[in-house]
From TrEMBL:
Protein family membership: Belongs to the BioY family.
InterPro entries: BioY
Record Gene3D superfamilies: 1.10.1760.20
Keyword line: Cell membrane, Membrane, Transmembrane, Transmembrane helix, Transport
Protein name: Biotin transporter
Transmembrane feature ranges: 30-48, 55-72, 78-103, 115-137, 149-168
Family matches, as Pfam families: BioY
The keyword Mitochondrion appears for this protein: no
Subcellular location: Cell membrane
Keyword Signal tagged: no
Topology of the protein relative to the lipid bilayer: Multi-pass membrane protein
């Protein structure tokens, strides 16, 4: 792993921490908050590429597990990995990886392609892992957990749109594209 890779991964962990400074929106009917940090997950793969994106999420989760309160609302520690949000958190590395992999496969970068990846694979994977774990931890039927999660969709669509636009604009720059994407596969 090169210095550039380690620097970018560290920067992204810091960025996730900065997004965590925005207070979560707590809901009365579910313990899983609305948080801006999902924007960071969607950006990680697109901006850093698959492997660095996944690594940035793994390092972020390890730092959180070590007790550093980087999650929105100043949360951290092992406890969050056995709570209702655990599945969502654990989905972050895989989600960043898959987004990065798919975006790096495009021959031509188009905003719609990136948006499609973020909306389908990105949001879908987070929910696919997060919702069953939430149902299991809360001892509620899967269908009930799916119903509870509908509230996140408008915000997540907005975050996917913002992430797609930012990734599109960043990768449109040849210099940034070469630095971020072409070096990514060497990891
Ligand atoms: O910080 C945590 O405890 C993890 C929160 C997970 C939040 C999930 S991710 C998908 C959905 N979108 C949100 O804004 N909140 C939920």
């Amino acid at each position: 792993m090169k210095i550039l890779d380690i620097t970018l991964i560290a920067l992204f962990v810091a960025f996730m921490g900065a997004l965590g400074l925005v207070p979560p929106i707590m809901l009365s009917f579910t313990p899983v908050p609305i948080t801006l940090q999902t924007l960071g997950v969607l950006l990680a793969g697109g901006v850093l590429g698959a492997r660095r994106g996944a690594w940035s999420m793994i390092v972020f989760l390890l730092v959180v597990a070590a007790g550093i309160p980087l999650l929105s609302g100043g949360r951290g520690g092992i406890g969050v990995f056995v709570g209702p949000s655990a599945g969502y958190l654990l989905s972050y590395p895989l989600t960043a990886f898959c987004i990065g992999l798919l975006i790096s496969r495009f021959h031509q970068l188009r905003l719609w392609n990136i948006l499609l990846v973020n909306l389908t694979v990105g949001i879908f994977l987070i929910y696919l892992i997060g919702i069953p774990v939430q149902a299991f931890v809360m001892h509620i039927p899967l269908f009930k957990a799916i119903q509870l999660s509908l509230i996140y969709i408008p915000g997540d669509v907005l975050k996917a749109s913002i992430a797609s636009y930012l990734v599109f604009r960043l990768l449109k720059s040849p210099v940034i594209y070469r630095t971020l994407q072409k070096n990514a596969e060497t990891l």
